[in-house]
Protein 1
Amino acid sequence: MRNPKISFNYFDALKAVAPATLLIIVLSGMVWAQEASEAGLGELYAGIEVSHEGVKAAAIRVGEGEVGESVKLVYSETIKAPLLPGQDGKLPPEAVKDAARAAQKLQTRLQQEYRVQPDRIYFIGRINSGGSQPEDLVKEIKQQTGQTISFLTADNEAQLSIVGVIPQRSKAGDAWVDVRGSSVWIEIGNGDTRGGYQLYKKSPSAKPTFDLVTMNIPYGTGIFAREVNRQIGESKDRQNFIRRAQKLSATSLSQALKKERERKPGLVYRKQVFLTGTIVWALATLLYPEDRQIFVPLTVDDIEMFGEKTARNQDSLLNPDLSRIRDQRLRGEIERELESVRDAFTPEQLIAGSELLKAVATEFDWQEKKVWFARHGHLGCLLSYIRLQAEK
Amino acid sequence: MKPIMTILAIWCLCASSLAQTPPLEKQAVLRMQRALASELDQALPRLPFMAWFEEVVGPQAGISWQMTECGERDEKALGAAADQPACVEIDAILPDKRKVVVMIAVGTFRKGVTGRLSFAYAIIEQEGQLYGVRRLRDLSQALRAPLLPEEELQNKPVFLVTNPKTPQPEIGRWTAPSVSGASDEPPPPPSPKPLPRLEAPRVSEGPVLGKAITRVEPVYPLEARRANVKGEVEVQVVISETGLVIEAKAVKGNPLLRRAAVDAARKWVFSPTRLNGEAVRSERTLTFVFTSRDR
């Protein structure tokens, strides 16, 4: 987990910058952000993130607020250009080109529409490529954008994400209680499942510092679906896919998760779980479409129900009844989001994703925990990074 | 025979109150709750540890505990067969946003609770800095100081990015995290508001507010959520001499919500009620409020 060559501590850095402010930005949504953009106050900083999920861009405006520094999100966009490694473990050249073109498109938008200076647009990569740098992606991005992309280590990414996703504390009655120190972040991504939690580190002779425990297993929604497909060969039978997915979940996936939980007790003992990742977004959107909260509470029963519906009745799952929603604006917004969910997954990926979720929930013992879908968590890492750079 | 039965009954209740937590955590927390502060540091009084800790951090502090690794993780030693020291971590956030962390070593994650409890370390997180507290007896004094001297600052890391293959932007030097001031207010706290629109169960405890050391919110039952059930549930609890809830009974409220409220109430921990200096058993009523939110 700790590589001395790349052991910088985003945790401390970000907390020093303005952890909660950042969260407030991340969590405050686009409408507010748009106003900030129009106000034309403060300095603009932006970032472009290339990952298994696609290419994301975000811009923030940093200025003087009434109380200290004010930071607002002015823009965010995701282009679906997922970078999944092929069977040989390498990134397919066409996918690399697509991702680089998407990055270039977003860079242009940031510069032309949002007037972000080129040197204030930071490029980061979140690619699980077995520890090696995807040189072809670096080259392609350089060629398309003229910029150098920096790849985050698992530690850095977990630090940025934890700070960007998990609130530091919350109110319980009259008292503040710790949240971040008793929570774990888990992202069920397209290419892998990752996460981590914060610890204190102290030995008798050393000064106390923050420490971090990270986890990563090489199964994400897309990869898991592909692996199941590979195993069933030409068969297009849905039931066959489900059976094979369940078998794979009970063997390889479960083993990988067990290994993580044995070495990282916090994955089991932490009382709250903050989830990110597209399959979690799909679950929250499909089961609770009108719940627009920043943190949507989920239960193991929800995960079970989601699994049940993905396996037996995807049509009803993908088309929830919205007739009870009378607010037309809200209903339109929900319908657009449902459309995005339907576009984002194949039926097999939904099944694979739900199996992944069930396996993680079981192995990490979520039954008695508070589990949250962090709605804006997908931007947590990128925004934390931009904020960090802006502070320089 | 009767006293034995009573002891057995109390033991069963205590055990069931923690039945939903992992076994090791249950054991460790029970052990911690039974421990005296003087077991961890001879200079401390013969008070239950939690009562002593609450006195030190004050009744306004939000206290929580969890099982965790005891600090230094040795990655090389953490092979598949490696065991790790286990600690109970007790966290308190004070009204001024300082955070106090006390780590008590209880055993290992594989072997379970073994031997004597021992104080591992304590940390005060203040203004983004981490301060080590060497002995438990020093905690009270350390907390009384409004600001610790600059030379005691423990955590001023220098952050470097040196990716061997791809050049990365320089991150620079940062001070440690900040936890005070208006800009450090947390985001909207995560409140359980599942569909149908139900707010997080608000918890009130009448006249004993401030005595609760650990408050556990009920988990919304799925059936209640689906049925849009809301309202108050009153739970009568009997609190043991050590502050554990040993009996919990719902006396008012919708049947769909009662079980969740009772389960939560069983996990509450109080500082012991005292009569003439002696810890005594007491009774309280906790009210859990489940309300819907209009939109």
Note: Confidence is low (pLDDT under 50) at residues 9-20, 147-210 of chain B.
Protein 2
Amino acid sequence: MKEILKIKVNGQSHELLIKPKTLLLEVLRDHLGLTGAKRACDSGACGACTVILDGMAVKSCSILALQADGSEVMTIEGLASGNELHPLQKAFLDHGAVQCGFCTSGMLMSSKALLDENPNPNKKEIKEGIDGHICRCTGYNSIVRAITDVVKGEYKEVK
Amino acid sequence: MIKDFELFTPKTLDEALALLHKYRDECKVIAGGQTLVLLMREGLIIPKYVLNIKRIPELSYITSGKDGVRIGAATTHRAIEKSPVMKKALKVLAEMERRLSYIETRNWGTIGGNLCNADPAGDPAPALMALKASVKMASVRGERTMALEDFSLGSHKTALEPDEILTEIQIPVVPPRTGAAYDKFNIIEGTVATAGVAVSITLKSGDGVCDDVRIALGGLARTPMLAKKAEKVLRGKKITDSLIKEAGQKASTEAEPISDISASDEYRRELVKVMVARTGSEAFARAKKA
Amino acid sequence: MSKYSVIGTRVNMVGGTDKVTGNAKYTTDINLPGMLYGKILRSPHPHAKILKIDTSKAEKMVGVKAVVTGKDTIGKKQGIWRRFPELCDEEILCRTKVRYIGDAVASVAAVDEDTAEEALELIKVDYEVLPAVFDPMEAITEEAPQIHEGVELNINVNRHIEWGNVDDAFKKCDHIREDQFVCSSQAHMCMETHCAIASFDYNGKLTVWTSTQSSYYIQVLLMDMLGMREGDIRVINPYTGGGFGSKFELDSAQFCASLLSKKICKPVKIVLNRMEEFTATKRRTPMYYFLKLGAKKDGTLLAKEVRVITEGGAYTAMGATALYLTGFFSSFPYKYPNYRYDGYRAYTNTQPSSAMRGFGAPQSTFVGESQLDMIADDLGIDPFEIRRKNGMTPDYVVPGQAFIQSCGLHQCLDKIEAHIKERGKLPPNRGIGIAAYGFMSGGIFNWFDTPYAFSAAIVKINIDGKVDLFTGANEIGQGSDTTLSLICAEELGVNFDDIRIHSADTGICPADLGAWGSRQTLMSGNAVKMAAADAKRQLMEFAAAKLGVNIVYDLDIKDGWIHLIDRPERGVSYLDIVKATIRGKDGETIIGRGHYTPHRKGMISPAYSFGIQAAEVEVDPETGKYKLLSATTAHDSGQVINPVGIEGQLEGAIMMAGGYGYCEDQPTENGRVLNPAIGDYQLIRSLDMPETNILEIDTYEPEGPFGAKEAGEGLTNPTAGAIGNAIYKAVGVRINTLPITPEKVFRALKEKEKKEKK
């Protein structure tokens, strides 16, 4: 018995007919073709599926899509502005905070949510902000350095 | 894979209770679902109906009044972690939440969901038990309250009737000169506690004598438990380092830990000694400053 | 002022913008028209005969399009050591017997994943359960069940390395130590699980998109297992989410998807779930060590004897290489006048153990560096002094095994020693431990039996000066696309941005053995450099003619300017010469070709990296828990090509190797992995990650492109050993088994307390 899901993703409204058991991650990847968020584990423990839901970083693999009915979601595809990368994206590239990239979408989402909530986190808070994410490639420290540089204003957007 | 189910999203608690009463044997309640969704994905729980209470407004709040603090069961961990209400002795709850899993889980998962999941090693139960918390449950038949230490009946089993919903956590007014602390032992931060300890100490005026104490253990028995014999070591006595250590030794004998892939039962017993001593000292220091 | 324009500069990784915007398509993200989804049915038994498989109900299920079992294969066994058929022992889709919990027995393709999963439940398999054995020590006894026909005592590989005369040498030693160690397994834990989309067309040609470290290996192994012509198989490597040694063998996702697609000529996608990833792929080889080390009282090492038994699991996979390399690297990085190694690999009814970053060297480094510190302690010799006294030096020859050319070990020792001195006196319960290591830059062996050069590359220069680089090398996140583009740009004298790389598509790129054994920077790099030089030479013919220079002058290209090396102001633009060359060759495309295979480089590798790592820990003596505070590494990788890449490899290696030392483990019970889920499998996250520092060492490796050698695997070697030595320095206890858990440290401290009370 399918139900209607009304959800705004990256600023665009959608109305989808889905089975109640559908996960938010499945709506994003399979129904909307936004494959940036990844399925990398089956226990909600790795962070690769993280998106920003009503301003909060959440694991989309552990949320029934219909529980996000009426909500606003940002995925990695919504981070850049037109053809201009977000400061976090630029910082990640400059610091080599991306290697295989599979964790990167989720990592960037949590980083953004962290800075939206707290524009001036200390080192421990930055580490806590990304602790929900496993990265098997970088060893995390380059990611912390990238975020730190954004916090310091190294990537202030020139208007 | 998750098998199909029908989803109800009632707007009020009464609606929810009516639905749960009707479908009680085949219905699972979901709030944040941070555990339930995973269990459904594994095929360990296959409900025919799922009752979504995540956004029922009357279940999500943190209030503070003359009767103490009240937390709606569908309040997220993150809301508790960030709440200005969690001051003084209640700071222990914010600290406990900060070590519970990761931010993403805390943003969506709820305190009620956690307590109903009744993982013996869950973080909230010992911290709340140290603050003498009670839980309120509701059904079409009315409401009832019980002490939190009686709520968990075993691993993943609670006192909830099939048609009851946990609605509120109640924390009585914390007496003056009370300090509370929570510590958990794990190998990697954010993972489930190998052992969890919460201690609250209330001092009589000025002389360092313990008026009341609670020592709660998590992950060290079939349910979270109060180390009552250890509490007796401290209650009514003047607190010293060696007395706190003795309480730790005592708590170690009361605990009923198991051996699993994280640790042996013997090691867990050793951890109890050390953690009760340290957490007790911290609670004592906080009580003196309170 | 660097003598290079491009290599050694900090650049954003090739493909990086795709990754940070979510545009990067990995295999799981690709959807093809008409694509079906596959799932695999796996054995619940560690050892059993397959009596009968009834797939009739599954086949009839609505939405199911194809079902395959071992009967649908051509009945061959495969393995990476293709030159040695007795080591090609894995059917992947089992025909008559299963040998571990997770061995594949059937596969289904359906319209969606849920249907495929439900269909698996309808397949009925009749097993005759056989006795199973899990411990390699038990597996090699007479009473143990035989896991593979014809393999006595379940020992299918043994290796022997020897020089000098250890027995005589031990007699001359002032001090001898005998120690036993146990090195655990480890899961690769790539963020992207094994996956493949296989698509047969109606002409019998197969295209496979897969997450792999070697498109070429997968192409050839599919040829073997499907009985096809190699050229009728095209393997494409989309963005790949990590490999670490888990993805250069033919796996169940690739094979089953191919078999299913063959039946129906539709694309079939199979993505392993995380539990399958933990239990039904491959893992690091667990090893049991018996070490005997003899020295003179001044710390000169005279003899080392190593005996190893490895837990092979159900199939050989790459285990024979791990067995050999652990024996070879047990002699690293020291000059042993006398050495003997005997290694045995035992089949067991557990998940096959194979290759994982370091390939036997993290294990040998942990045990070797621990024992070396122990003997130094016995003799009252400083750990740096004993390493200096015996450490390898440039141009050292490992008798019968290897020619070391560049070797920066002693510079590394100096740098780390200075770093530790700077740390000064440490507070109680803190310690810094060191571990020295070396590693190969790719292997010289051709047990895969390829007729091709190990690496090859093609460079095409377009009319606008833009360069297309074709290489078979696989980008798996380690940055090889970037490194190879840097090498190409440097050699050609153009900008990094002028290079567009096409990698690891067997349909358009020349064969390359792929990303394993830390080979690509050196081997693929050499091929790329040669191809670029070949293209450059064609330009130079026309440049020399255009400039009309005296024969005594040489020309070179830098920053798009072709010039006299002695008079750089005299020259002509690269773009002008490109146009001239194309016109001059009748409009023919400028193509440069390069290849590389190491020749006469010993038994192991054409070049070796070296290094030393210092780990600082703080132990809580009341619980045994310890914090990894920092890891400082001096790593000799010759000329640095891609500095951002090397830093990333170092820090990532510390996360992985630190985890190997501290917390990663796969406990099993009767062959069943007890923690096959993230959350239960402990690994290091950001809060537990130590501070990392890298100290620059300047060396030049003649064998490598611009003097470069490896920087991917060697860095995984030292951390466990450094941690073990650090804990000893901090609280005086030694743990000889991995991982070094808090409980082990606690128990050791209690033992020590008891002993001291007596």
Note: Chain B has a mean pLDDT of 97.
